[in-house]
Design goal:
Blueprint: H1 2-19, E1 22-28, H2 43-56, E2 64-68, H3 74-87, E3 93-99, E4 101-106, H4 111-115, E5 121-126, E6 145-146, H5 147-161, E7 166-172, E8 216-219, E9 229-232, E10 235-238, H6 239-247, H7 254-267, E11 279-281
Parallel strand pairs: 1-2, 1-3, 3-7, 7-8
Antiparallel strand pairs: 4-5, 5-6, 8-11, 9-10
Helix pairs in contact: 2-6, 3-5, 6-7
């Protein structure tokens, strides 16, 4: 009887594991509108190597959503995140990837200051319909996807996945550290700008509603750094995109992934006198757990 119970339990766990779905959302913006102020990126080259990496990790084409250029507007990205949350089931494994520009933007609600008195900026993803500066062609900053908003969606998705589900967020953009690729003097191809997006202050009280990170975030660089593209065999890619396409595999945990990302980073060419450090953040309880089984 004990042996029979053990067999039934094993079969039940096997069925549950087999029922988990792997889903992915890729946001790839290489050609911004000419009036936005943003320069073009090599992001479209990222798509092919990301799809190969996802296939190698057991993701099926029908479970991969790719938003490119004009489809990757603020509303398009928000809707895709909402649908991911609606589709997510307990135990599922989700991979979300941004290959685009990134920019720091004035922290209106004050949550960054609560963590660091000298930090007055949120980190933001730059969707297709976001301009480079306040009042640039009338733009007021409403389409910048801030780390605050992104974190709320990540938290909702992770809640739907439950404790046995996995959510990996990868941000290949400038100033990406803290989000839990411009107009610039730097001639090396990069994803972002040194110029922050400055909003007028509203005088609203400081926010006390910080979201606790319950997922894994992998950023191309620290919040104060520039994210440089890299050329491999004559083709330019996002530095983090290329690296993760080489090292993400079934059975790897967050701690090992971080070490492998840094190892490959150190082997790639970097513009003279430039520095870029990848950043992985996650709850300590997830660091030794397998990301994708």
């Amino acid at each position: 009887m004990k042996r029979l119970t053990t067999i039934i339990l094993f079969l039940s766990l096997t069925i549950l594991a087999g029922g988990a779905t792997r889903r992915a959302l890729l946001v790839i913006i290489g050609d911004y509108p000419s009036g936005s102020g943003w320069n073009s990126l090599a992001s479209h080259n990222d798509k092919a190597i990301l799809l190969k990496m996802l296939d190698r990790n057991g993701f099926h084409p029908e479970d991969i959503v790719c938003l490119e250029d004009a489809d990757a507007t603020y509303s398009g990205i928000i809707e895709a995140l909402r649908l991911l949350k609606e589709q997510a089931c307990s135990g599922d494994q989700i991979y979300i990837h941004f290959s685009c520009h990134g920019q720091q933007i004035t922290d209106i609600d004050g949550d960054e200051v609560l963590r660091d008195f000298n930090d007055h900026y949120d980190e933001a993803i730059v969707p297709y319909d976001a301009a480079i500066a306040y009042n640039w062609n009338g733009y007021k900053g409403e389409h910048h996807l801030t780390d605050d908003v992104l974190s709320q969606h990540m938290s909702a998705i992770q809640d739907a996945l439950g404790k046995n589900g996995r959510l990996l967020l990868v941000v290949d953009a400038c100033h990406s550290g803290g989000v839990q690729r411009a107009k610039c003097e730097d001639k090396a191809p990069h994803r972002g700008t040194y110029d922050s997006f400055k909003l007028p202050l509203t005088g609203r009280p400081l926010s006390q509603n910080n979201v606790t990170e319950t997922w894994i975030t992998l950023s191309a660089c620290k919040s104060f750094q520039t994210n440089y593209e890299v050329e491999v065999d004559g083709i330019r890619y996002g530095r983090l995109t290329y690296t993760i396409s080489q090292v993400l595999c079934a059975g790897i945990n967050a701690e090992k992934l971080e070490k492998e990302i840094k190892r490959v980073y150190n082997s790639l060419p970097m513009p003279a006198r430039k520095h870029q450090t990848p950043e992985l953040s996650a709850p300590s309880s997830l660091m030794h757990k397998t990301i994708f089984k």
